[in-house]
Inverse folding.
């Protein structure tokens, strides 16, 4: 079985999915169990949870709707519990990235006051983290592991994945168009979510054609970083503009917001160029092309293995078919 966040073309699909899902859960638990650097642990655990949710999106057509809905909701609940511990930390990182980390460079802007407010939020979240937050998340991950270890995709082949890939990719194309049509921060954030699914789907499927799909992973990652900066700026604008907040005088605040909008326009120009390149192909031919790569890789690995692998997953209706064969 291949290592890391990728599906193995040599394995039955359900087996490959279970291997990836359980590996991510184990990695998330391990990250949260190490006390010295809780923030890094939370960051790493949240990445595992995002990868798991992307895996669920990819295999969704092969799962019963109640199973999919239940697992995704449980993963979302675990991630939500970890969010406050990460959000203040992430916004502080964003301020340093966008405006530099030297205090003197931001005099005459709302940034110093905003930094202080976020530091207090981070300390409060850190105290909560040292309490029950991490242990609650580990408990949630441990409780969901048996369900992940028993996942069965039907039919147990690439067909369900191809359908999931087509639907997710089409969602990315639509989200791109919607974001640039509306210009709303919420729509750019939604596009980023679909993009992150696409990037992780390409990671999962990389073994079928490493050079091409790795290039798509890198392009998606670059675009996601740009849209992440766009979202951080939108969050900072929202905080600074909130009626209940007062980080600077109205004139200083207005000047700062103008600076934010200028930076956002530049980011969105770059995002448009990369996004149109990444989503140039229509969804049906894109999914069919990746499916052809996968089937070729699976055929190649099957030919190189002297003994055929078997799956312990029983397809729906198999017993009925066996009974009919026996009675004939």
């Amino acid at each position: 079985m291949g290592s890391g966040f990728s599906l193995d073309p040599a394995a039955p699909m359900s087996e490959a999915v279970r291997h990836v899902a359980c590996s991510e859960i184990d990695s998330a638990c391990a990250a949260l169990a190490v006390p010295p650097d809780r923030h890094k642990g939370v960051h790493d655990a949240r990445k595992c949870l995002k990868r798991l949710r992307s895996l669920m999106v990819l295999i969704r057509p092969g799962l019963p709707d109640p199973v999919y809905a239940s697992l995704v909701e449980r993963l979302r609940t675990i991630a939500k519990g970890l969010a406050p511990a990460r959000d203040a930390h992430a916004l502080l990182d964003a301020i340093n990235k966008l405006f530099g980390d030297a205090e003197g460079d931001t005099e005459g802007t709302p940034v110093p006051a905003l930094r202080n407010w976020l530091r207090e939020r981070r300390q409060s979240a850190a105290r909560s983290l040292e309490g029950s937050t991490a242990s609650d998340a580990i408990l949630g991950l441990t409780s969901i592991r048996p369900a992940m270890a028993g996942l069965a995709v039907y039919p147990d082949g690439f067909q369900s994945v191809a359908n999931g890939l087509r639907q997710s990719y089409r969602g990315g194309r639509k989200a791109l168009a919607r974001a640039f049509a509306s210009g709303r921060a919420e729509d750019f954030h939604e596009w980023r979510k679909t993009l992150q699914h696409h990037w992780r789907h390409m990671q999962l499927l990389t073994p079928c054609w490493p050079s091409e799909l790795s290039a798509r992973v890198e392009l998606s990652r670059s675009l996601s970083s740009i849209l992440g900066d766009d979202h951080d700026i939108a969050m900072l604008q929202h905080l600074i503009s909130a009626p209940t907040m007062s980080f600077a005088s109205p004139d200083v605040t207005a000047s700062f917001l103008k600076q934010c909008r200028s930076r956002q326009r530049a980011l969105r120009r770059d995002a448009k160029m990369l996004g149109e390149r990444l989503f140039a192909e229509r969804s049906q031919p894109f999914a069919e092309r990746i499916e052809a790569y996968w089937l070729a890789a699976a055929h190649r690995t099957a030919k190189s293995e002297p003994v055929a692998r078997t799956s312990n997953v029983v397809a729906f209706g198999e017993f009925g078919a066996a009974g009919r064969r026996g009675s004939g």
Summary: Confidence is low (pLDDT under 50) at residues 307-328. The radius of gyration is 23 Å. The domain at 13-305 is CATH 1.40.20.10 (CHAD domain).
